[in-house]
Design a protein that fits this description.
Blueprint (H helix, E strand, L loop, with lengths): L3 H12 L4 E5 L8 E5 L5 E7 L5 H16 L7 E6 L5 E6 L11 H13 L11 H11 L4 H6 L2 H13 L12 E3 L8 E4 L2 E4 L6 E3 L1 H14 L10 H30 L10 H15 L1
Antiparallel strand pairs: 1-2, 2-3, 3-5, 4-5, 6-9, 7-8
Helix pairs in contact: 4-8, 6-8, 6-9, 7-8
The chain binds adenosine-5'-diphosphate and magnesium ion (MG).
């Protein structure tokens, strides 16, 4: 496998650029994000995906990010992208000189709802289908998340409740006409000059934009301090309901909750009791 220091010369050779590595940016996971610098001091960000981004998906995502940016969706533009001989994908993005927001204020929520509405009916031409993925995760055990939930008593008890929450929804097919970011949470945003920008766009695909709102709804409610008390999460919820209805929202929330609790490499390395308790309180209103 390539090292990041091998990847940059390959990119430069291919695109006729002279980027050099500055540092690994804090906050990412997996291979992460790197700050790079051009010969004139211009800043860029390199995202490197050794395994998780096949070429057709990368190309489709690049097209979607271009269209989103052109529509006014606040995001970092992709300056270059491609696939290396060993199959790893890279993306060179515009550097956003901002900070990851730690709290969502009311005007931030307005911006995010407006951005999310731009995602409606974009009909992205891609095989990255968030709606069918989420359906398979919750009903067919895809990605092993249901099995991971079962592996520990504390998450197994919550899983029983989650399964109950969606038992009438198996036959539901979520729409696939919108553009979906897939991880639409504050960790994937930056505030620059007072306005929010969405980053980490490599996995954009098709689906229902309500899934992105469900991510936002869950995580702004559960993560300590993420929502300003002036922010009313019901605004996000009612937008979801108007898009996909109650059963659709429950499927999206359950799918997201499984990711929240047991996705990624470190799922066994922490005690999930606190988060499970918060998730348990969060779903009470949907169990009624
Ligand atoms: N375009 C960008 N401009 C400035 N910083 C960025 C940019 N993209 C990513 N970062 C920084 O790198 C961190 C991780 O990026 P992200 O794309 O979310 O990676 P991961 O895929 O690991 O979640 C972000 O929190 C941010 O601090
Ligand atoms: Mg991220």
């Amino acid at each position: 496998m390539n090292e990041i220091s091998d990847v940059i010369p390959l990119i430069n050779q291919r695109h006729g650029t002279s980027w050099s590595l500055v540092r690994r940016l804090p906050g990412g996971y997996l291979q992460g994000a790197y700050e790079i610098r051009g010969p004139g001091g211009e800043r860029g960000v390199l995202k490197w995906h050794p395994t998780d981004l096949p070429a057709p998906q990368l190309l489709a995502a690049a097209r979607s990010v271009d269209r989103l940016h052109a529509s006014g969706w606040p995001t970092a533009r992709w300056l270059a992208y491609g696939t290396l001989p060993e199959g790893d994908a890279y993306i060179v993005e515009e550097f956003v000189d901002g900070v990851v927001p730690t709290r969502l204020a009311a005007n931030g929520l307005d911006d995010l709802l407006a951005a999310n509405r731009l995602q409606a009916d974009m009909h992205p031409d891609t095989h990255q289908d968030w709606s069918s993925y989420i359906h398979r995760v919750v009903f067919d055990g895809e990605a092993g998340l249901v099995a991971r939930m079962r592996a520990r008593p504390v998450t197994a008890r919550l899983l029983t409740r989650l399964e109950h929450l969606i038992e009438d929804a198996r036959s539901l097919s979520l729409p696939t006409t919108d553009l979906v970011h897939g991880d639409f949470v504050l960790r994937n945003m930056l505030v620059a000059d007072g306005s929010l920008r969405v980053i980490d766009t490599a996995h954009v695909g098709k689906g229902t934009r309500a899934y992105d709102l469900a991510c936002l709804l869950l995580e702004t409610t559960i993560e300590d301090g993420w929502a300003d008390p002036a922010v009313d999460p019901r605004r996000v919820e009612s937008e979801c309901l108007s898009i996909i209805g109650g059963a659709g929202l429950r499927v999206c929330l359950v799918g997201r909750m499984l990711h929240y609790l047991v996705f990624g490499g470190g799922w066994q390395d922490y005690d999930p009791s606190d988060l499970v308790a918060k998730c348990g309180s969060f779903i009470e209103r949907y169990e009624a």
